[in-house]
Amino acid sequence: MISNRESARRSRMRKQKQVEDLVKETTQLQKENAQLGQQIEVSGLRFREIDSANNIMRAQAMELTDRLRSLNSVLEVVEAVSGFAVDIPEIPDCMLEPWKLPCPTMQLPIIASAAAGDALKY
After folding, report:
1. Mind spelling out the 3-state secondary structure of 60-97?
2. Per DSSP, what are the bridge partners of residue 111?
3. Strand-pair partners of 121
4. Nearest-angstrom CA–CA distance, 101 and 94
5. Is the pTM of this model over 0.85?
6. Alpha-carbon distance 46 to 35, whole Å?
7. Are 68 and 88 in contact (CB under 8 A)?
8. What are the φ/ψ torsions at residue 121 (nearest 5 degrees)?
9. What is the three-class DSSP state of 121?
10. How far is residue 114's CA from residue 2's CA, in Å, rounded to a whole number?
11. How many CA atoms lie within 13 A of 13 on its CB side?
12. pLDDT by residue (tens digit) across 42-95?
C-alpha cells in the first residue's frame, strides 16, 4: 500500500512536470509566433513600398520612352526638312520591352541624391 502510494505520488509529479514543460513550450512557441508575425508584417510593408516604387519607376520608364520616341520623330522631321543627316538614336529594345531587363545596350549614368528615399536621377 505504501509502495502504491509512492508510485502514485511519483506519477502525479511526472504529470505535473509534463504539464509545466508543455506550458513553457506553449509560451515559447507563442512568443516565436508573435515575432514571426511581426517579421511578416514588416516584410509585407517593405514589399508594398518596393512594389510601389517599382510601379513609379516603370511608369517613368514608359514616359521617358514616349518622350524619346517623340524626340526621334522631331529629329526625323528636321532631317527631312533640312536635308542634313541627323544622328537619330534608336530606342533600345529593353525600353520597349522592360520585362527583358537588364539592358546591356543602355549605359545611363546613375546619380544618387543625398536625401534618403529620393528616386534615382538619370
Report:
1. HHHHHHHHHHHHHHHHHHHHHHHCCCCCCCCCCHHHHC
2. 121
3. 111
4. 6
5. no
6. 16
7. no
8. -110, 140
9. strand
10. 82
11. 6
12. 999 999 999 999 999 989 988 988 898 899 899 899 889 988 888 887 776 665
Q: For residue 91, what are the contacts with CB-CB under 8 A and spacing of at least 6?
A: 65, 68, 69, 72
Q: What is the reported pLDDT for 112?
A: 47
Choose between 115 and 75: higher pLDDT: 75
SS3 track for 31-61 = HHHHHHHHHHHHHHHHHHHHHHHHHHHHHHH
Q: What is the DSSP letter of 100?
A: G
Ramachandran angles phi, psi of 46, nearest 5°: -60, -40
C-alpha–C-alpha distance, residues 52 and 80, integer Å: 42
DSSP reduced 3-state for 111: strand
The closest of 121, 93, 88, 97 to 106, measured between CA atoms, is: 93
Write down how long the chain is.
122
**Phi, psi dihedral angles at 77 (to 5 degrees):** -65, -45
